[in-house]
């Protein structure tokens, strides 16, 4: 079967922001929107309808026009990007200075003989120095390896939902950063091959990306700029991330057992009595009547709302599991799949049962796709939002998703791969999802007895303590907590969970900023300096916001590890020792902690011993300055309070912290603790 290709240009119809270019056997629509994003669609495909878009397609840029280019091609010149289309249909995205960011070759279609969906393929080229990031799925690192990657969210052969794999690709090169979103929910395969620079001009090998889809439209969006600009533009298209409630950044414990209300009380008491902070208990299928969604087993949970109120007074919320399929009694227990694309579908009654949120699972018998996951999240979020008190926000977690899912909640990625490779993969998934616009995610931390022992469990917990979502699971047959591994593990868990509790105000601030800017909470170390090539290859550390660099231990038996530090001064938060970057440093990593570094001049809101919020300030280098933003927790579901902006200056041994307001600099209204001057904290 021969493939159909566009052919040569026959006619051009300019329009606002671009226009339509008609070829011999196809047509291409190009649109540059006012936010700088570029839309392209073949064979009549337009930007709408789309599950991914938060609203209507943004208005076209009135200053961008389709004009003739060289060799019979056409181009659209905009403020942030230039789009060039050759006379045979290759589409090139260039910087305003004319440097190529990507080149998409003309697509090819294979028409079905029975008139069904046409399979299609598109090959793309990027500069030799470019590196691919994303797609937020089951890859070995935040930078996917050369080879084929499945683009799909179907149910796996094991009967569980496949991890999130979004058709979003972030490409970082010397020329700039750009994001590609292919708006097609069909299954497909993405094959990547990174480029290589040769010795001298003309010897470079470009990077390639080949996408093969089983059907669906050939359309997508491209946005270019700095990483922060790219994610801001992406958020303006796909929607701002939902703002989880403040308690969602605490410690969640998943209880899958079939015990009743007293068993839940026992688990909660076990944590609190041992000094382990606990903020939520997630009830699994064991609390449902016959596994039916929304139907609580009344024998084991006769007074669920009373239990929920009791736990809430102790600072613990209840979260219910919801299978995607709803069992119907009139169909002999058969699973019924709701019409999720119908925007009228809502969850009802969960808040009345005492639940503050829901987490989804997918039954292997249910035909569950990527757009279905988004619609399921929408049904849960909007249903709970209508029921919870006005000063609260609901929590929705899903194992699968599609661009736009972040508008309704976060992603839990389950236990993932076993063993130490699974630990590394769980970090990669969180980083990748953040670059795809999903800032709130995390793996489940389960007992390591079956795949690595106590050491692996401790390292998992230490990593998760610095990720947006921290969920632990049963570590033994008693369905309890870390104490089941003995006193040593309990001590390490107490330290990790205690540090997580201390950083809660910082996590809340990062969540507010993610909602407003689209910036991920967990970022690759190259985020502030993508031009530094060596940082692009760093996959064993990450930035938490712009203040902390976290270097988890990902190998068994390690008590020291090498850490690559970006430019500037960094403090080891455990010892207070200062290091000057860029550099590779070898630091201690005993079993009781992992290396964490604070950026000089950073301002972190942290939980004080009295339960309030204080500012932890890391001294700038002599003669330098710093600062940071703090967003206090807000109970409403709007944009929240204004960010508090702080500046930090240093003159000799004196560090001055000021709050910057419209009325000028003022003394901070919060307690301030300066660190980094002498290796210890000094109260101000």
Task: Give a written overview of the molecule.
Strands 5, 6, 7, 8, 9, 10, 11, 13, 16 and 17 form a 10-stranded antiparallel β-sheet that branches. A 9-stranded parallel β-sheet has the order 27-26-25-24-21-20-19-29-28. The protein has an 8-stranded antiparallel β-sheet with strand order 1-2-3-4-18-15-14-12, with helices on one face. Helix 5 (419-435) packs parallel to helix 6 (453-464) and helix 6 packs parallel to helix 7 (487-502). 17% of the residues lie in helices and 31% in strands. Strand 42 (672-675) and strand 43 (682-683) form a beta hairpin. The longest helix is centred in the middle third of the chain and has 18 residues, at 370-387. It starts with 8 loop residues before the first strand and ends with a strand. It is built from 9 helices and 43 strands. Mean pLDDT is 89; it is low at 154-162 and 680-684. With 684 residues, the chain is α+β, with helices and mostly antiparallel strands. Belongs to the glycosyl hydrolase 31 family. GO terms for molecular function: hydrolase activity. Keywords: Glycosidase, Hydrolase. Residues 241-333, 377-510 form the Glycoside hydrolase family 31 TIM barrel domain. Residues 620-684 are annotated as: Disordered.
